[in-house]
Amino acid sequence: MSEEADIQALAKRFFDAIELGDIDAVRDCYAPHAEIWHNIDGQVSTREQNIETLRAFIARVAKRRYEHRRLQVFEGGFVQQHELHCMVTERREVVVPACLVCRVEHDRIVRLDEYFDARKLREFRTD
User: Fold this and answer.
1) How confident is the model at residue 102 (pLDDT cuts 50, 70, 90)?
2) How confident is the model at residue 123 (pLDDT cuts 50, 70, 90)?
3) Which of 7, 20, 95, 122 has its CA 20 to 30 A from that of 1?
4) What is the pLDDT of residues 34-75, one digit of tens each?
5) Strands across the sheet with 108-116, in order?
């Protein structure tokens, strides 16, 4: 496969694993030394810190899906824009627009910068 195809496959694997709640598959998409940054707090976390955050998110939001995935691959990484649909109650869904910029080395994410719509994220957290 080409580098572009490998990066596309990694991005699909990563987001599909989050949708499915497959924490081990998510961990495997990250390099051990990966850094994860969020625009909401401006903090950088480690792979393991991010895995714990995702574990808590998956426990709280049993149904989640990514829609309108728009993936653009560039040399050494990718950008994906999407809408994260979260069922926060049996009848209430919150949609959070987001954009992720990922640097990739050796078929693993080494840096992830995640940009959420802060207003929508607050709506999600108020439940």
Assistant:
1) very high
2) low
3) 20
4) 999 999 889 999 999 999 999 998 988 879 999 999 999 999
5) 44-46, 30-38, 108-116, 93-105, 77-87, 64-74
- What's the domain range around 34? 3-125
Q: DSSP H helical segments within the chain, as ranges? A: 3-20, 23-29, 47-60, 118-125
Task: Indicate which CATH number applies to the domain containing 61.
Answer: 3.10.450.50
Q: Which residues contact 24 (CB under 8 A, 6 or more apart)?
A: none
pTM of the model: 0.91
Q: Tokens for 91, please give them.
A: 């009848």
Q: How many domains does the chain have?
A: 1
Please write down the long-range contacts of 40-48, taking CB distance under 8 Å and 24 or more positions apart: 40/116, 40/118, 40/121
